[in-house]
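Hey all, sorry for the wall of text incoming. These are the two entities for the joint prediction.
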Amino acid sequence: MVETSVNTLDPLVNGGALAGEGGTVRGVDPARNAETGPEYTLLAEQQVEQATRAAAEAFESYRRTDPETRAAFLRTAADRLEEAGEAIVETVQTETGLPEARARGELARTVGQLRLFARVAEAGDYLGVRIEPALPERKPLPRPDLRQRKLPLGPVAVFGASNFPLAFSVGGGDTASALAAGCPVVFKAHNAHPGTGQLVGQAITQAVREHDLHPGTFSLLYGRGSGVGQALVADPRIKAVGFTGSRSGGTALMATAAAREVPIPVYAEMSSINPIFLLPSALRQDRRKLAADFVASLNGSAGQLCTAPGLLLVPAGEDGDDLVRQVVEELSSTSGLTMLTRGICSARVEGEERLRGVSGVEAAAQGKAGSTENAPAPAVYTTDVETFLSTPELSDEIFGAVCLVIRYDSEARLLDLIDGLEGQLTATLHLDAEDGADRETAGRMLEKLELTVGRVLFNGWPTGVDVGDAIVHGGPFPATSDGRSTSVGTLAIERFLRPVAYQNVPEALQPAALRDGNPWGLVRRVDGHYEVPEGR
Amino acid sequence: MVETSVNTLDPLVNGGALAGEGGTVRGVDPARNAETGPEYTLLAEQQVEQATRAAAEAFESYRRTDPETRAAFLRTAADRLEEAGEAIVETVQTETGLPEARARGELARTVGQLRLFARVAEAGDYLGVRIEPALPERKPLPRPDLRQRKLPLGPVAVFGASNFPLAFSVGGGDTASALAAGCPVVFKAHNAHPGTGQLVGQAITQAVREHDLHPGTFSLLYGRGSGVGQALVADPRIKAVGFTGSRSGGTALMATAAAREVPIPVYAEMSSINPIFLLPSALRQDRRKLAADFVASLNGSAGQLCTAPGLLLVPAGEDGDDLVRQVVEELSSTSGLTMLTRGICSARVEGEERLRGVSGVEAAAQGKAGSTENAPAPAVYTTDVETFLSTPELSDEIFGAVCLVIRYDSEARLLDLIDGLEGQLTATLHLDAEDGADRETAGRMLEKLELTVGRVLFNGWPTGVDVGDAIVHGGPFPATSDGRSTSVGTLAIERFLRPVAYQNVPEALQPAALRDGNPWGLVRRVDGHYEVPEGR
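and here's what came out:
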């Protein structure tokens, strides 16, 4: 547990501690079901406004910071986070049960994300500048001078995920991309890791201070149940929402956002079972390794990853039988890992019980329960395509290391199954690309899958998301509320922007990004052609 | 009236005429309140599915057409539209009361839009290709090969506007951008101009045929009331909605789309009063010309433009008094033009009556009623900032040539007024940019206005929207349902796309847009750098 000299810590609102009037919460070590760390005060709903008011005020100046300032601020936040690294890694482990290597890896990723978005802010391509100079002689009508850029939407509410206490939490992807876009962030911490959130929040607050930004640029709220979160999304000063969590939580926020006097976009990542399709040629390779890699992907982080495999498609026949045997064997020597919270563990156990009760679903294999609390045994069940397609609840995500193996006997059944899938974050195909028949099957599957998922991958595992320019971590509903965007990677900044056109603006009033001479050195589209500064 | 050899015409569904089972409608010449043209059969709600099924089927092949095919198809549609030009211009005039010059101008714009989107489809930049080649040696983890492109969402439902029988109707902007994106279109015609819609629909259907596309790529529906439209938006095969019309109509579609099992995006353009701010230095120029230009913008197309000025801010004092006098004089010699329909005319007359009843609002000037039916006199009312800010209904759009003049006595009051504005399509500033004080005021106004509107323009008039790369015809709610997009200009294609990532896809299965060697000659982002083919 992190050393702390105080017994009570407060939400960080508008640059300072604001004593919450909605009770308190403490972290819980899920490996022991024991409370840990100090008490954190929870805001009462009527206190939320203090953060949103400050954010609205901060927006006026923060949105006008130049690329260098915004980038420097994000880099300082990354530095301060890195400096607090040891305390963060320790607190993550205590509050979430995640192992040290995972905590360190996630911290590195989170720091890397902040630095990546510093580069995005600096480069400024996200401004999407398009310039059409006036054509006074054009017939039948002259063309005015028209210049377009994207502007930040305004203060953004972000909700922390339970399963990524760093990368999808206080200083995670939504925070980084919103801040890079020029949007202040009001962050609703996840109560499962209040101490982690506090350390990260302090790092960001410190960076705000060091760069003399308005303190409302970042606030960190704690609150009980859904009240504070709902109040936040309903607040007229909030202009967009980022959320990672359950389908019920996400759809509740969508409803609130849609019912506002002025509706706002909600980017909720919710639910995905991430099918993995093994084609016959994949099984003619090293089946033992395939099974081991699959089980590692299934059980990693106790299966609590948005991209964890919940569905494994295995061909009928001897090779498939053998693969399933290998999975069973591998799994039986695998132990359950500590889950994030007692509640998440219960939901997973109940989900497995419901699965067991579905007619046509059979238990295939089980690992060992872990030695800690909240560490249920990883498990695999089997069923067939018909049962899957006729039983809607089999499409529901079970958050944890539980996978359904489906045996299929023809390409046609595979394609039927794909047609019956809901929107997913990922789909994975395994095949030997030298095998002509499987390659053709994969081509037909790809054409369906690309319409159903955010990312299609080959001969790998969906867990592990590379953070860069080309990644998409998103997908059609219910994987996310809005498949037009991604929560990971540089494209995520587009969530928080909207285009504005400027017509015949006098030169002295022209925003820098739009000025002749391109003072910010942006990639711009001028009169239909790309203007790409050297080195870009 | 267009010559026709039949007395009854049907919706165009899946490449052919489908006799509607929901009654019939005829065009009405609003200048005479007299029915005109043949009868058009209306679909019954349960017939809608025939169009959506066909569109879903068409999507499978249409989305895979290459850039050249899609561009050629859009160009043929433009050609066929142009060939039907004389009949179209005549029908538009009869069905809408719009004058010949406007009909010809709008036809040219519509043809131009189709050709513009042919170029967009051909260039393929909208695919947003980003490539990150594998880095097997990267530490701590190797980078997979990741490639991103945008895919079309699926069949799109588009609703025709009353006020642009061509440019925002059957072959208008939403149709052009959706088709360019690879989305089949199911178009719900506006019943106020069924004959115009039929001619345009035939031109597009003909182009679909000539290019051997699936006939479900385009369908044209007629329907009574909101039933057919609601059925269309609720249909699970529809993946996005484009709409231009009233706030009540738009928000009803938003509610339906949000309540679906799988919610979909709605791009509704709804309501805007397009404030025009005259700063003191603007009044030191030719006030007579300023007044004449304002009245022309107000009364053009009988005020039935989404960007028509509904609010004119005039400084207190003598110059302002004189400007208002000039407006009054100019208006008094101006005649009302025929409005689009009797219903629209009634709504406008009622809106004006409500305005007249607001305490603090005074009649300032009135033109003459037109000589046709449905041609009420253009009118100007005056009020002050306080009344405007304390009377929410003064923010409601009155669709027609009615403008509220607000006198202001300080920059502070102007800024207060801007703070009280709802989201708008446009805001306009008039000033002499050489005037230092006004330039500074304009700078402060611009910083507020750019957060409130889709387009800010200087020393011009908001009516008249240039169609190109840099335009934004959109804006925060209630101007539109989704300020993150535009309905006019090339950026509009982004409404109908979503990104997908491809990880480690075997070369043989790589989509052409993503292949090494860039066979489609796209502008792409490769490993963080722009790859811009020559000439782009």
